[in-house]
Amino acid sequence: MKVRIRKWNAVASWRWDVPEDDVCGICRVQFDGTCPNCRFPGDDCPLLVGKCGHSFHLHCVNDWIQTESSRGLCPMCRQKFEFVAE
Ligand SMILES: [Zn+2]
Ligand SMILES: [Zn+2]
Ligand SMILES: [Zn+2]
């Protein structure tokens, strides 16, 4: 008996790719959740919107910018990452 597991995989990976606008590009957690370092969503784990249009958890961006490989670039589009002034 053959199990059609292939189709399951296709569906799973498709779902992973789609909500790009709704998840942090660094930790891949949805924006209504927190970054991996925080337990509670809300003011303690705010979102940052970059001028390139990508958004991330503040904490994720802080960690990312501090890594040498980031070179100050957005991890999604590799443009210089600048915050939208509030
Ligand atoms: Zn994040
Ligand atoms: Zn956080
Ligand atoms: Zn970007």
TrEMBL record:
It holds the Pfam family zf-ANAPC11. Keywords: Cell cycle, Cell division, Metal-binding, Mitosis, Nucleus, Ubl conjugation pathway, Zinc, Zinc-finger. The keyword Ligase does not apply. It is found in: Nucleus. Gene3D superfamilies: Zinc/RING finger domain, C3HC4 (zinc finger). Residues 35-78 form the RING-type domain. One of its GO terms (biological process) is cell division. The keyword Cell membrane does not apply. Pathway: Protein modification; protein ubiquitination. GO terms for molecular function: cullin family protein binding; ubiquitin protein ligase activity; zinc ion binding. GO terms for cellular component: anaphase-promoting complex. Belongs to the RING-box family. This is Anaphase-promoting complex subunit 11. It comes from Tuber melanosporum (strain Mel28).
